[in-house]
């Protein structure tokens, strides 16, 4: 191992040791980034993590896993579904459930989780650099403060990219953040819609479809594929579909969306078959896109594919030997639990520490109602 931390010839006696500000810099504070930073810090290395101040905890805490699961629990409680086995099918905690009722608990949980993460990083002596990170070269990261007032450069022997993902937005759809939304925008609805079209029958689409159906929203799920949740056992998916139909969810498989028209009264979803579906709102769940646009990957000798994903080897090392990538930004399975293990493994591999490999088969949890 050379003194700069990349595979190659060992330094000679005449070589000057290279000095870096940090042994490891992590861009992104989601599950993968957190665990990479903490693993390296526990090995005794100097570590920093770069994150925008309002996004501590990454997508998982702020717009993804934690908000959606907290929202599900709020729906289960307020609709009375969690207690109906005891009190009967008509039991309901609150007759008219508002968006404020649903999201009050969500914001509380996000705040608590953010503080837990900050405390954990502080306890492990990880420096938190507030701002947006981008590459100047393979060993240099520029951090632009959130208000754009200052840009500071730091050097690191190793870098872990853990910037996560965002909802993919097809170019053919005009998102107005009011009636045509993605899964992030759904967390900012002004009221519970009476009707909702969900485009995409993957995990995120079906989770939100079930939650709003439990609230009494008339939900229509559209997908050009022949079935929902194709990664699941067909019997499990078919059983879930049966229960969702009990909640008045309609399914239109084998249908492709040609476009969405919106106005002050709601939306009309136009299908390629010529059918039209009116609804108060449309949620697009068309997969995820790696958040690599702001990284200036070219400066480090890296590139991403059309979905913003970075290619890595079995050690989560990119084509640039001192740079690793973990979590959603490398694609499937894009789960919080696997991202945590990927982050730890990347840190161990960077510093030549022994570590157990990830199991070839990983569990997947889908949080629907029921």
Automatic annotation (TrEMBL):
One of its GO terms (biological process) is 2-oxoglutarate metabolic process. One of its GO terms (cellular component) is cytosol. The keyword Flavoprotein applies. Residues 22-343 form the FAD/NAD(P)-binding domain. GO terms for molecular function: dihydrolipoyl dehydrogenase (NADH) activity; flavin adenine dinucleotide binding; NAD(P)+ transhydrogenase (Si-specific) activity. Its cofactor is FAD. SUPFAM superfamilies: FAD/NAD(P)-binding domain. Keywords: FAD, Flavoprotein, Oxidoreductase. InterPro entries: Class-I_Pyr_Nuc-Dis_Oxidored, FAD/NAD-bd_sf, FAD/NAD-binding_dom. Its EC number is 1.6.1.1. Belongs to the class-I pyridine nucleotide-disulfide oxidoreductase family. This is Si-specific NAD(P)(+) transhydrogenase.
């Amino acid at each position: 191992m050379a003194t700069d931390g990349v595979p190659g010839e060992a330094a000679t006696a005449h070589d000057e040791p290279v000095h870096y500000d940090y042994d490891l810099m992590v861009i992104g504070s989601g599950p993968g980034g957190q665990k990479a930073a903490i693993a390296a810090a526990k090995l005794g290395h100097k570590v920093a993590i770069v994150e925008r101040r309002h996004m501590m905890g990454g997508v998982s805490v702020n717009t993804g896993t934690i908000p959606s699961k907290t929202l599900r629990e709020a729906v289960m409680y307020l609709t009375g579904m969690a207690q109906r086995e005891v009190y009967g099918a008509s039991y309901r905690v609150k007759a008219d459930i508002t968006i404020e009722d649903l999201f009050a608990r969500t914001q509380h949980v996000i705040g608590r989780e953010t503080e837990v993460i900050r405390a954990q990083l502080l306890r492990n002596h990880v420096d938190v650099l507030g701002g947006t990170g981008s590459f100047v070269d393979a060993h240099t990261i520029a951090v632009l403060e959130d208000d754009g007032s200052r840009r500071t450069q730091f050097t690191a022997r190793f870098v872990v990219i853990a910037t996560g993902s965002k909802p993919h937005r097809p170019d053919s759809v005009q998102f107005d953040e009011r009636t045509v939304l993605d899964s992030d925008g759904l967390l900012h609805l002004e009221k519970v819609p009476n009707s909702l079209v969900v485009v995409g029958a993957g995990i995120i689409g079906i989770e939100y479809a079930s939650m709003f159906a439990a609230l009494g929203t008339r939900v229509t799920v559209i997908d050009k594929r022949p079935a929902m949740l194709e990664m699941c056992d067909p019997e499990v998916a078919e059983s879930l579909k049966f229960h969702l139909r009990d909640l008045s969810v309609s399914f239109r498989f084998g249908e492709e969306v040609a476009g969405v028209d919106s106005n002050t009264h709601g939306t009309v979803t136009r299908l390629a078959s010529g059918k039209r579906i009116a609804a108060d709102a449309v949620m697009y769940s068309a997969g995820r896109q790696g958040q690599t646009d702001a990284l200036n990957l070219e400066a480090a000798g890296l590139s991403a594919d059309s979905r913003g994903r970075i290619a890595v080897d079995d050690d989560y090392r990119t084509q640039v030997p001192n740079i690793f990538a973990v979590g959603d930004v490398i694609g499937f399975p894009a789960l919080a639990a696997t991202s945590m293990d990927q982050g730890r493994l990347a840190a161990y591999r960077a510093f030549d520490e022994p570590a157990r490999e990830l199991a070839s088969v990983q569990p997947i949890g889908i949080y629907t109602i029921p």
